[in-house]
Amino acid sequence: MPRFLSALLLLAAFAAQAFDEKLALKESQAAIGRQVAEHVFRDTEGRTVRLSELRGKPLVVNFVYTGCFQVCPATTQFLAGAVKEAERALGPGAFRVATIGFNLPFDTPQAMKAFARKNGAASPNWLFLTPDAETLPALVSDFGFRYEATPAGFDHLLQVSIVDQSGRIYRQVYGDSFEAPLFVGPLLQLAQNAPVPAGSVQAFLEQVKLLCTVYDPSAGRYRLNYVVIIELLVGSSVMIGGIGFLVIEWRRRRRQPADPKTRAAQLS
Fold first, then answer.
1. Which residues is 169 bridged to in the sheet?
2. What tens digit of pLDDT does each residue of 167-194 get?
């Protein structure tokens, strides 16, 4: 009986800390434009790597835990294909990739090396890194990455961060799979030193596309936001109808004959 009660209490504790997907997505989006602070890692050979050493080129960052048997391997394998496609489009060495293990102390350099080998991450510009345990909370906060421990491992947002040459988060891409332009496009903009400036026509068009699509964490993919589309259509119809009414009313008043008293006053 005591063991049964302990198990119930443990499950209740995990339930109380259920992963909030909407909050995770909000925190991730809030990180866009944020300057990432300096952080220190160890690579798969145990060598020290500083985040500042990876600046000067666009950097792709994602978080995994090596004890994951399904989602993290699948997303890493998909990312490996996306990286190959981006390298074909931009050329080899145009950007770097860093996969960071967040389940410490288990995501050691040796564990990260085995994880990389199993999941086909063969690019010479792809690092698998183990962070410092003391600075891990600040690291994941910088990237807007949120995770929660569960009885089966961890729940976390499937997120790929694209960081510009100066160390500022430029884009967040979500899902276990995504359309190539969502990944290659931002990298191409940064590699060509042509980031989309805020307030430009292109930035406006991108905002419209983002407004009309929404990432669904439960489904793990982007979908059309029909509520926003309907609101835009209804709003546009009301605005066009209002303008049409004003034009018709203005023309009607112009054609309406003047009042006789007003005309007599004008003649006198």
1. 163
2. 999 999 998 888 888 899 999 899 888 6
